[in-house]
């Protein structure tokens, strides 16, 4: 595809399309979206031109290669694009084909009826991939929900923690000043800190005590 070059008439037509999608009064994001639409339309056209006789590019009849067109989502998947990204690509191609249908190139040999057929095939592809996206999003949602802690479990933990707090407070009052284990469990119940973070705090405290000349437990 990199070796494919557009004839001057096609290049001029694509520049007109770039001017059409550009929004002078838009935000930077809108300008970026316009550039993206233009670049993805060019990429699609180059894809459709693969295997076509270069001397006939200007006729635009390569767009009638239905089998090649239908394979476009599969080609995007091969370069590791997910269903949501493929949908965006197809949406931008459809936007270009709407422009193409309403504003045909000067030397185009397709005619209005055949242009509509290409547009119809693209919309069908979009709908098919859209169903895949919905299934993809459902699986992601299920995976996320599977990693969540159940409300019943949270309620049980809160109830047990509430019952445990008074005895822990008594333990910490009775514990020696250097008793980090008791403080560890109190902090875990009261603050909800992760064990990893608490272990890091304990190691830091023990290191500080060791540098002061006192014996560090476990060493």
Short recap of the structure:
With 219 residues, the protein is mostly helical. It contains 9 helices and no strands. Helix 8 runs antiparallel to helix 9.
What does this protein structure show overall?
This protein folds into two domains: 8-147; 151-211, no CATH class. The chain is 72% helix and 0% strand. It contains nine helices and no strands. Helix 1 runs antiparallel to helix 2 (28-49), helix 5 (83-102) packs antiparallel against helix 6 (111-147) and helix 7 (151-174) runs antiparallel to helix 8 (180-191).
Structural key phrases:
single chain, 219 residues, mainly alpha, 9 helices, 72% helix, elongated, disordered C terminus
Runs in which pLDDT lies below 50 for 5 or more consecutive residues are 193-200, 213-219
Biggest sheet character: none
| H/I helix tally | 9
Mean pLDDT: 78
Give the overall form.
elongated
Query: How many structural units, i.e. domains?
Result: 2
Q: Mind telling me the C-alpha Rg?
A: 32 Å
What is the succession of H and E elements?
HHHHHHHHH
Q: How many β strands by DSSP?
A: 0
Proportion of residues in extended strands:
under 5%
Question: What percentage of residues falls in helices of 4 or more residues?
Answer: over 70%
Distance between the termini: 65 Å
Provide the structure class: mainly alpha
């Amino acid at each position: 595809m990199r070796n494919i070059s557009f004839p001057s008439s096609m290049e001029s037509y694509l520049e007109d399309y770039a001017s059409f999608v550009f929004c002078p009064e838009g935000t930077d994001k809108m300008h970026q979206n316009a550039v993206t639409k233009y670049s993805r339309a060019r990429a699609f056209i180059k894809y459709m031109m693969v295997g076509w006789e270069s001397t006939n590019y200007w006729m635009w009849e390569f767009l009638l290669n239905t089998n090649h067109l239908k394979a476009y989502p599969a080609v995007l998947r091969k370069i590791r694009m997910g269903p949501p990204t493929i949908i965006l690509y197809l949406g931008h191609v459809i936007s270009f084909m709407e422009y193409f249908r309403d504003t045909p190139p000067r030397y185009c040999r397709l005619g209005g009826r055949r242009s509509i057929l290409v547009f119809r095939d693209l919309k069908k592809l979009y709908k098919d991939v859209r169903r895949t996206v919905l299934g993809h999003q459902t699986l992601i949602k299920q995976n996320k929900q599977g990693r969540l802690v159940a409300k019943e479990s949270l309620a049980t933990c809160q109830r047990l923690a509430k019952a445990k707090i008074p005895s822990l407070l008594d333990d910490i009052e009775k514990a020696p000043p250097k008793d980090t284990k008791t403080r560890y469990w109190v902090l875990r119940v009261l603050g909800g800190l992760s064990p990893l973070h608490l272990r890091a705090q304990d190691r830091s405290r023990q290191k500080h005590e060791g540098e002061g000349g006192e014996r560090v437990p476990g060493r």
